[in-house]
Amino acid sequence: MDRSLAVERVLRGVQPHALLDGLRAALSEHFGAGDVELLMADYSLTELRRVTVLPYTTEPMPVAGTTAGEAFTSQSATFERGEDGIRANLPVTVRGDRLGVLAVTLPEEPEPPVWAELGRFAEALGHEVFVADRDTDLYVQARRSSRLTLAAEMQWQLLPGRACSRPEFALGGQLEPAYAIYGDCFDWSASARTLAVTLVNGMGEGSSAALLTNLAVNALRNARRAGIPLEAQAELADQAIYAQHRGQEHVATLLLEFDLATGGITAVDAGSPRLWRLRDGKAERVHFDEQLPLGTFEDTQYTAETLQALPGDRFVFVSDGVYNAAGPHGELYGDSELTQAILTTADLPAAHVPSAVLAELHDRRHGGLAADDAMVVCLDWFGSNPSADRESDIASATIEETSDRVAPSR
Fold first, then answer.
1. Considering the entire predicted model, what is its pTM?
2. How confident is the model at residue 373 (pLDDT cuts 50, 70, 90)?
3. Is there a contact between 271 and 292 (Cβ–Cβ < 8 Å)?
4. Which among 337, 363, 371 is positioned nearest to 183, based on CA atoms?
5. Residue 403 belongs to what H/E stretch?
6. Burial 331-360 (b: 16+ CB within 10 A, else e)
7. CB 261 within 8 A of CB 169
8. End-to-end CA gap in the chain
């Protein structure tokens, strides 16, 4: 059997908690590998932590200033020579979402095709870890530098991921403080024809804020999956939140839908967060008609607005925990500071921008505790895909044809 197929078969065949043990044995047998480690990025994206049976039993590796960290941030393999041979650090990523690094030590430097094979194994391992999270806590525990608050546990489980990429766009998002987040959240979903992006800022603190945000996000998902227009999605979620809290709690929300075939954007601004656009080297805030936060009053009606994305546009979304953050002398982190942060990070990939902006915010506070949680999401628009309409039509026709074939006779 081809050794690449043998390794991939092992990954698919082992129990979810034994992925690394299976891969270690397969790489030793077929490639002569010595040490094989999986390093998971922690929630703050500042450390890489080894996957072990017992959490917190090994020292973390900082992302900054390490060869493995460079592989994680650059999303390309890095190499280092040691007493036992040459060690390759290979990014473990699933559809743009950076999970960590696979470190493999070989006794001597192999030919380039071998490195390419190992890179494919790292990618396959990422997909298996992504699926394994449904059945084991092992990899989730490895991501933790400390215990999460209950609210943070709820919020991180609610997220679709921290990054996503397709030919039309690239997305990245981050929440801080990573281990004690409570009300801020983001959501996205892409189909053949559209990309939906939702930014949520639930009021309150602790688990009560997390519960409110969970209700809002799931109400919006339920409405979105029903296939109704964006403004109707906001109205149904508004009704769900009002029915539960009778106007005592509300959720500031920004909903957007990108047409992948044209770059057209439909938006509903229900109170916050804010949006900045970087176009042709100029960063400026995009203003919408601000409407009532979800759940404020019964049967609120919402109106959608439109704008156009152009190839090369970057959109940066921030919650009030960013633009209302106080500096050392009480001054707020305002539009000018955000504009400068967006310009400073213009050359970074979308997945890196949120952490960079939040790190700058942390430095501005001189490491002090945040008064509010903060969210940053970055979206790079590469260009529309005119074939999206055709792909969607073909998919719809296939579904209809299949439905006709399996429809019961009357």
1. 0.89
2. confident
3. yes
4. 371
5. helix 387-406
6. eebeeebbbebbeebeebbbbbbbbbbbbb
7. no
8. 51
